[in-house]
Each structure stands twice: as structure tokens, then as C-alpha cells.
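Researcher: Let's do a round of design. I'm pasting the C-alpha cells now; please hold your answer until I've finished.
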């Protein structure tokens, strides 16, 4: 069924009851050309582009829980492409271009909202660093603009512009084309569109082993629902990537940390852009439901506890109240954590591994939601052709041997 205004109107006459199951609940088959481990946004997007761009539909996405139950459904949904280095700028902007028409492409409303992302400067060093980003971005054709203190106050009237603040706001970078999207809808939209093209989406199916043949190449995956044969395997399991890769004796340069977020009670529209501050160490936006969505930092030590440490949450709330003192009267509804996969240079790993037929897409850490469409698109390319997509080539695993790192550690508003 195609969603459209006409469908909505037609369905109004039968109580909007005519909507079929959005994707098939597939049973595992004996063998697939490609098995993707991990039913988050990146895994599902990979499956969709394999089918759409390369005509490969004998594909299964194997998910241990429910699709989107990992970081895809736990993140604060900030989308932007204002990264410093040319390689990252190309990758994240590739994704941003795909976000623009994603709802139309998937025929599913992912609620992409390019409302503008403001990155605040509070010190002379912030000004220098942020302007460096602005100039680098503009050389790469990415929209990012420097705003004076006065322009910041006009663009985001709720901000605390007092000169008596601990860190007074002295300017900001604004990427107008950045914004937010609805995270669940991204997983659901890709699942629905991939399933419609013949991909099997297998939920409640945990991969417990990776089987290899005498030549060392992969032959399939052991799962909680039996063995599934595979010509190629793509591992897209975020915070669990090092554990899954260890099943094939591949050691990844990845550490997993809990990263937290929280939301307030809903309120009327008070904030119509995304505000980030590296210096006070927090960021905030307002969801369409009216909740303030607040991003906290990652824990200081590695772990798999999805709750995260309490003092990290407290620090995030303090930071946001420093930027918007009026929010101090709001109650927080809930907080949660996700396990993020951090590489030493805080850039992702996309490509082949030393094991024939085994491919990795991970290391997105605290910032991979924004990349979802681009990541799936370039990962599908290497799975289908065996050759890296030009945009993904710099993100190969061997950069940790060659030393050609892409250090984006300063790219986020919260330390990671
Ligand atoms: C609190 C928080 C805030 C964030 N905010 C932002 C943000 O504002 N902007 C941004 O761009 N990014 C953000 N991120 C990062 C972003 O969420 C991730 O980089 C991105 O969602 C990763 O997507 P994914 O599909 O790779 O991983 P996931 O969505 O985690 O999917 C991986 C899937 O693999 C499955 N899996 C794991 N092991 C197995 C197994 N053995 N067998 C089968 N399945 C398995 C998991 O169940 C999971 O569903 C945030 C993350 C968190 C936690």
C-alpha cells in the first residue's frame, strides 16, 4: 500500500482500519546471498539500498531484539554535516542529501525537520575553532555560517545572552540545513521499504557465532533460531560490534561506552532549532510532541549498562539550564542510555575485514544517526561490488595500521 493523501481520505470512510502489516515477519531461510547482522537504521538502510540500487534481494537482516531497539531508537536525532575533515564532510553530507527526500523515497514520513543547528561559542578559543569549521565546511560546499552575538540572540530568542553567565555566548555557527528526524520512523520506513523489495527481516534472532569454511571465508551465522548460510556477512551492530566480530576472530579498535539522553515533560513550542555547546557540555532540541530532548555525555569508563551514570545526567541538565535558565522549572520525564561504539579517531569503520566475505559498518559512536541513509548507501555498495564506495574508502579498517586517521574527536557537543 502506498501512503498518500488519497489513501488517507479513502481510509477515512472505513475508520482508518485498512492498513496492512508494515513488513513481513519472515522465517529464516536456509541460505542468503547476504546476511546483515543488526536491525538498526544502518543495517536496514543497507538492506534497502542493496535491493534498490543493486537489485540484490536475497538478503536477510537478523536482529536479536526488535528493529530499532538499539541506538537507532535511543538517540537524540540530531542531523548535521558540519564536520571538519574533507573525508567526514563528504560522508555526512552525502547522508544529508539523502535525508532531504527520504520520506518520498521510502513513502514513509521520517519527519525530517531541517530547523537549523546552532553550535555556540563562549570563548576566544571556541571562536577560532568554530570559524575554522565554518571555513572548512564552506570549501566543501556545506552550508555553515558564523553568527555574531547579536545574530545568535535574534535567531534563538530563548537563549541566556547575559554577559554575567559563567560562559557568556559570544557567537555561533549555524548550519541551517541541519535538524532532526523521527528515529523510530527511520527504522520502520527502511524495514517496510526493504521488505517490500523482498528482503527478509528476522527479529528475535540473536547471532551467536560466525561459521567459516576451510579457506577461512564466511559460510553463515549461528543464531538462536538455527544456522543461516550466507555468501557475505555485514556486521552492523554498533556497541556490540567488537563482541560480534570476535566470533570471527577479528579484533576491532573499538571501545563501548554508555551514552545517555533524557526528555522533559511536553510543553508548548519554545525552541525551534537545535542548540549545542561544547563548552558548557550539553545540547537540546524540542520534539514535535513538545518534550525537550537533552543529550548527555558518555560515561568515563567502558561498559554495557544501558542506564549510564547518574552524575552524567545531572551535569547535562545543569548545562542546559545554564543556556536556558527558564527550563529549570521543567520536570524531566525519563532518561535512558545506549551503548556507543567508539574508535580511537572517533570516525566510523566501513568496509572489508581480514576475513573473506566479512564486512564491518561500525564505530559511529555518539553520532551515527545523522549518517544512517549515507552509511547504508555506501555500505551496500561494497557488499554488492566488493569495492569500497569512493566516499567510504578513507574509512577502511586499515587506517589504524597506516596511521591515516580522521580525527573528529572535537566534532560533538558532548565529550566522547
Ligand atoms: C543517547 C544517545 C544519543 C545519540 N544522539 C545522536 C544524535 O543526536 N545524532 C546522531 O547522529 N547520533 C546520535 N547517537 C548515535 C546513534 O544513535 C548511533 O550511531 C546510530 O543510531 C547507530 O545505528 P546502528 O544501526 O549502527 O546501531 P543500532 O541501532 O544500535 O543497531 C544495532 C543492532 O544490532 C543488534 N545486535 C547486536 N548484537 C546482535 C547479535 N549478536 N545478533 C543480532 N543482532 C544484534 C542490536 O540489537 C541493535 O538493534 C546517539 C546515541 C545515543 C545512545
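Researcher: That's everything. Go ahead.
Model: Designed sequence:
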Amino acid at each position: 500500500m502506498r501512503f498518500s493523501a488519497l489513501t488517507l481520505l479513502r481510509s477515512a470512510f472505513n475508520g482508518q482500519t485498512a492498513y496492512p502489516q508494515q513488513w513481513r515477519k519472515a522465517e529464516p531461510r536456509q541460505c542468503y546471498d547476504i546476511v546483515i547482522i543488526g536491525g538498526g537504521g544502518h543495517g536496514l538502510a543497507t538492506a534497502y539500498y542493496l535491493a534498490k540500487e543493486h537489485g540484490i534481494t536475497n538478503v536477510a537482516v537478523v536482529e536479536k531484539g526488535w528493529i530499532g531497539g538499539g541506538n537507532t531508537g535511543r538517540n537524540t536525532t540530531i542531523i548535521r554535516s558540519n564536520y571538519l575533515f574533507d573525508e567526514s564532510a563528504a560522508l555526512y553530507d552525502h547522508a544529508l542529501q539523502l535525508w532531504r527526500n527520504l520520506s518520498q523515497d521510502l513513502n514513509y514520513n521520517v519527519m525530517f525537520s531541517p530547523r537549523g543547528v546552532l553550535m555556540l561559542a563562549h570563548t576566544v578559543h571556541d571562536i577560532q575553532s568554530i570559524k575554522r569549521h565554518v571555513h572548512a565546511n564552506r570549501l566543501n560546499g556545506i552550508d555553515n555560517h558564523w553568527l555574531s552575538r547579536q545574530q545568535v540572540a535574534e535567531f534563538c530568542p530563548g537563549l541566556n545572552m547575559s554577559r554575567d553567565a559563567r560562559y557568556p555566548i559570544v557567537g555561533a555557527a549555524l548550519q541551517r540545513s541541519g535538524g532532526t528526524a523521527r528515529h523510530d520512523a527511520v527504522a520502520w520506513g527502511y524495514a517496510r521499504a526493504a521488505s517490500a523489495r523482498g528482503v527478509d527481516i528476522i527479529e528475535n534472532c540473536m547471532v551467536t557465532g560466525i561459521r567459516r569454511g576451510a579457506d577461512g571465508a564466511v559460510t553463515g551465522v549461528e543464531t538462536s533460531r538455527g544456522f543461516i548460510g550466507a555468501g557475505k556477512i555485514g556486521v552492523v551492530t554498533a556497541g556490540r560490534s567488537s563482541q560480534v566480530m570476535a566470533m570471527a576472530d577479528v579484533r576491532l579498535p573499538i571501545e563501548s561506552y554508555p551514552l545517555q539522553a533524557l526528555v522533559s515533560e511536553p510543553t508548548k513550542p519554545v525552541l525551534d532549532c537545535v542548540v549545542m555547546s561544547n563548552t558548557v557540555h550539553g545540547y537540546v532540541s524540542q520534539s514535535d510532541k513538545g518534550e525537550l530532548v537533552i543529550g548527555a555525555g558518555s560515561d568515563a569508563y567502558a561498559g554495557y549498562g544501558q542506564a549510564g551514570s547518574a552524575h552524567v545526567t545531572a551535569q547535562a541538565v545543569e548545562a542546559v539550564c545554564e543556556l536556558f535558565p527558564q527550563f529549570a522549572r521543567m520536570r524531566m520525564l525519563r532518561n535512558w542510555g545506549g551503548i556507543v561504539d567508539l574508535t580511537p579517531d572517533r570516525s566510523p569503520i566501513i568496509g572489508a575485514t581480514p576475513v573473506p566475505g566479512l564486512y564491518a559498518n561500525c564505530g559511529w559512536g555518539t553520532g551515527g544517526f545523522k549518517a544512517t541513509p549515507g552509511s547504508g548507501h555506501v555500505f551496500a555498495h561494497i557488499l554488492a561490488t566488493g569495492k569500497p564506495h569512493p566516499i567510504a574508502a578513507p574509512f577502511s579498517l586499515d587506517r589504524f595500521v597506516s596511521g591515516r586517521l580522521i580525527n573528529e574527536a572535537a566534532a560533538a557537543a558532548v565529550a566522547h
